[in-house]
Amino acid sequence: MPLPETPMPRLLVLLSLTLLAFAGNSVLCRMALKETSIDAASFTTLRLLSGALMLVMLVRLRSAPERNDLNGSWRGALALFAYAVLFSYAYLHLSTATGALLLFGAVQLTMIGYGLLQGERLQLRGTLGALLAFGGMAWLLLPGLAAPPLTSAVMMLGAGVAWGIYSLLGRGARNPLQMTAGNFLRTVPMTLALSLFTLTFANLDAQGVWLAVASGAITSGLGYAIWYRVLPQLQATQAATVQLSVPVIAAGGGILLLQEPLTLRLILAGIAVLGGIALVIKRRPQ
User: Fold this and answer.
1) In this predicted model, what pLDDT tens digit does every residue of 136-150 receive, in sequence order?
2) HSE-up of residue 224 (Cα within 13 Å, Cβ side)
3) What is the DSSP letter of 238?
4) Could you tell me the sign of the dihedral formed by the alpha carbons of 58, 61, 62, 65, in that order?
5) How do the residues of the chain divide into helix, strand and coil, expressed in percent and rounded to 5?
């Protein structure tokens, strides 16, 4: 049974909260790994565990007892786990804005590339947009004083590819919230194995733990729940376009909360990447 249509003012509020949550994942992760002593593996474990708990609770609250079974897949869980691990380790040495731009760009370009492999064709504007986005990403990574650390940048690109794969695996899901909850649950043995493997390097402090739990329960769990509430009322191109704001919001959070610099190179690369992707996903008027 479809959800009733949300009034426009409320829809805008929910959409804004979702975008803030998505950007908040980058801000909270960078804040935890920069300003507290928590290690990346422990942050990942706490994020996935708290996200799983929140999503299971939401599924139980929102679904009838006979319909609240948790689905998902091990392939989806593996992609989710790869994203979360690479995301955390990448943010050890990346600024909030740079990480968000690399992540978002890789997600979108992965999905665009999959569409091309499936036989989709880009018009001239879309082709120019894809080239512009790839060029902006490459320019950001070129050696120089303002270039991000290459290893961390590659890990964040890998996180974006993993999240793109996760999104592709979940396309057309009948119950996306239940699917996400099931995938989060399936990551539990994986992330516990990671923590056991890295136990020698484990380090926890109260602030780092709270930031990890907030990232999992609020900006991931609640964020996804709200997103799946508003997504059916958006066109595909609208959903993709509004996400262009996430790296911008994350950059603002990094500047305001972490006093991170905003370089000219990052600004120009961001314009190229986000502008190029906007050209690809924007359909020609009928």
Assistant:
1) 888 777 766 567 889
2) 24
3) H
4) positive
5) 80, 0, 20
The band of 117, judged by pLDDT with boundaries at 50, 70 and 90, is confident
Q: What is the DSSP letter of 244?
A: T
Task: Encode burial over 132-155: b for 16+ CB neighbours within 10 A, e otherwise.
Answer: bbeebbeebbeeeeeebeeebbeb
Q: Which residue has the higher pLDDT, 87 or 61?
A: 87
Structure tokens at 175: 């119950």
Cα–Cα distances (Å) from 262 to 89, 97, 229, 253, 268, in that order, read 22, 8, 34, 11, 11
Structure tokens at 208: 């780092």
Residue 71 has pLDDT above 50, yes or no: yes
Cα distance between residue 273 and residue 97, in whole Å: 13
CA distance linking residue 125 with residue 49, whole number of Å: 43
Of 285, 257, 233, 252, nearest in space to 4 by CA: 233
For residues 139-164, give the mean pLDDT.
85
Rounded Cα gap, residues 169 and 171, in angstroms: 6
What pLDDT, on the 0 to 100 scale, is given for residue 207? 96
